[in-house]
Amino acid sequence: MNSKDLEKYSSAITLSDMEVFVFPELMYSLVLANIMSPVIWRWRQEDCFKKLQGKSSYRKLMRLRQYIMDEFEFNLDLETWGLTTKAKELKRFEHVISPEQIAKSNALFGYGGDKYYFDVDIRKHFGLDAYDDEIIPYWKTETVEAMEAFRLKEGYRTAAGECVSLSALYAAAAFIVCGIPLEDIYMVLTPLHSQNFIDLQDGVLTNNRRLVTKAMWFNGTAISDKAQRALRNENVTIVAHSTGYVHCLYEEATIDRTAYAHLAERLGAYLSADLTLLIFANFLRSNHAYQKYFQVCRDCHGQSQFTKAETLFHYEHSSNYRVADSTFEKLLAEVSDEDFVRYELPGRIRCDQVDEFLQEKKPDLRSAGARAEMAAFLAPFVPESKRFVEELADFVHVTARLPGLEKKYVAVEPIKISVDGSREEIVDYLQSIRKKSITADLAFYAYRDMESCDWAPFVKAAVERNPVCIGMAGSMSLDETYEWLRRMGEGSIYDGGRLAQPDEVVNYGTGDGLEKAFVLANIIRSKHPEEALQIIVEGADVLLAGAQKYVFGSRKNLTKRVRISGDGRFSVFERRSGLGAKLR
User: Fold this and answer.
1) What are phi and psi of 543, to 5 degrees?
2) Residue 524, Cβ neighbours under 10 Å: how many?
3) Across all residues in the chain, what is the average pLDDT?
4) Buried b (16+ CB within 10 A) or exposed e, 535-553
5) pTM here?
6) Which range among 160-174, 210-224, 291-305, 359-373 shows the weakest confidence by mean pLDDT?
7) Domain residue spans in the chain?
8) Which among 323, 357, 389, 428 is least buried, having the fewest CB atoms inside 10 angstroms?
């Protein structure tokens, strides 16, 4: 493997946000790794999903949302995967992308986001202001196994993951549990967020643990407002799909052009709504300052009664009913009689008058003429009515800033797996196309399949990008570190011949002996970088040999010999027979 490929393939092991940005095919490789994993397939046996057999994919997706809400929490802790430096990461990728390009598109390297998105400095928002300006977090994207293993970590009661991990989890689970074809799932990444657009009904957007339907997108609640921030205010950097990807900075795109154009059309429709009284009320819900210009009229035994719009929105807080939707009359019934008066409130326009205007004119606020007409209608009651209408137009019509459609499209092997296939059939299929599909090949590295993958990328990642175990070892001697590792739990978070990285072992306090050997090797290299090391594994026996020898037991049933020289170079060799007899 040449140095460029080694960097990419080792990035499939660690999957930091920076690595996914530079090598966009990694995003879908993680989805495929999660689809190959037995973890999500076991969810099918949960009672909540077994009860939905034969039901629609949409209904299953809504149940999946609640399952993920219950079983996972959002985690963006700086300490989980440790810190690195800007200079180190820029040096790694200088052969692929320039520092200037990275700074324009990556949140950790200068990108500031829209001022609406964060009203504080980005580094302060993420807690990075406690460190030197050159320090940045790794923010590694977790596999489903690593997400589940947070249950073992102190302070966590559920599984966890950051936004990119959750989007990959949602994509895989939507396919496995809900039966949604991969062709209908588009991953949409911005500098500060990662979401999926699922082409189902009017469209569904995943947002961390939540789902956002089109109706929810426009409901004007605080949760929906937060869910909108990325697509409203950021450029989309990557779109990943079963047919390939498109990247904001790369001229070549591997995604199918027709599929990408379809996404642009469907996402555009999702982000735009006809202006009805319901949508108008939702806008007022989201923009409290404008409520004082409106009033609501009701009929009470043939007499008109009036109340302030903000009064009704206040009642919503403790009610299951909402302004202007099908439950509106029930909301009105909950309002105290003392909050109504028998005369029109001066200086306020009645919402029934607004409704008449909207039904008659059907204004499309993307038109300057329609905006001007509506501003004139509201002007007697709403100061700065032009500004009001501009903000209303922004609320009703959002344009996603996708990478340009005009790219150089390069045909690649698409991922074609059926929702009716078994896990075993899918693994066999992905294995069969590895030579034709780099995405499928990288998926096995993200899956950590050490029985079928070259070990060099795993070793490179293990000894170069695992700072947490070094920090945890602290001032312990090597003998103390060895005993610390031996006292840890002995189970790997990965099944079969799959291996955890050193920081996964120490974060979750458990690991196979072979995994612990890599932890100790990484710590030895940090304390004695000039020391040459060997890791020799033969079935149940593992030997880490350097100035001293350390013995571990393994259940991974792997056989390999790894040499790490004093200058950091490493080599991987096949079987060295007789190790077990020597150790015994």
Assistant:
1) -125, 125
2) 23
3) 93
4) bbbbebbbbbebeeebebe
5) 0.93
6) 291-305
7) 3-272+401-445, 277-396, 448-583
8) 428
